[in-house]
Every structure is written in structure tokens, then in C-alpha cells.
């Protein structure tokens, strides 16, 4: 088994020199047929927990869903690159990926 370091969050730096914030938030995420939960979301990246490992450097498409109870629930249809992946001691895997493109779609109620 390959040892990997814990997932680290990085974020884009806008022109004013301050990084965009990342937020610890748990939302459902779908990566193909795999279901997981976000741990941290930023404007350009996401960390999520899932039952499977994703290869670092691979392209992934994923959907993050906001809570149905929100005033206007949406599905964030994203594409990105896996930047880090490691096995979680409590089970499953924690993966970090970029968010290179995003399409915001109304969620079906």
C-alpha cells in the first residue's frame, strides 16, 4: 500500500493577493456511480470523502448538490483534476480535486 500525505487545500489567489476562502461544508457529491460527501469546498477546489480511491492526475466529472431545503436548490456540475488522495484511517478515502469548470443547474424537487 502506498502511503499518501493528508489532503491539503489550496486556493486561487485573486489580484488583491488574498486567497479565496474555502469552507468546511458537508454536501452530497456524485462522481459517476460513486457517492460521497464534501468536506471542504472552495471556488477552485473540493475535498470529499468516498468509499473508493481516485488516481492523482486523473480527470473527473462530479456533481455537488445543495440541500433540498434551500430556497433554490441547485446541482453544481463540475470537472476537475484529482490533486491528492489518501486512505482515511476510519475507512474510505479522502480526495482533493480542482474545480476547472462548473455549470449551475436547478435541482429537481
How does this structure look, described?
The protein is mainly β and 109 residues long. It has one domain (22-106): Electron Transport, Fmn-binding Protein, Chain A (Pnp Oxidase, Chain A), CATH 2.30.110.10. Helices cover 0% and strands 50% of the residues. Strands 2-3-4-7-6-5 form a six-stranded antiparallel beta barrel. A hairpin with an 8-residue loop joins strand 5 (59-65) and strand 6 (74-87).
| Rg (CA only) | 14 Å
Q: Main sheet: which strands, in order across? A: 2-3-4-7-6-5
Distance between the termini: 42 Å
CATH architecture: Roll
Q: Structural class of the secondary elements? A: mainly beta
Summarize the structure.
The protein is an all-beta fold. It is built from no helices and eight strands.
Topology readout:
Elements: E1 22-24, E2 28-31, E3 34-42, E4 45-50, E5 59-65, E6 74-87, E7 93-98, E8 101-106
List keywords for this structure.
109 residues; mainly beta; Pnp Oxidase, Chain A; 6-stranded antiparallel beta barrel; 8 strands
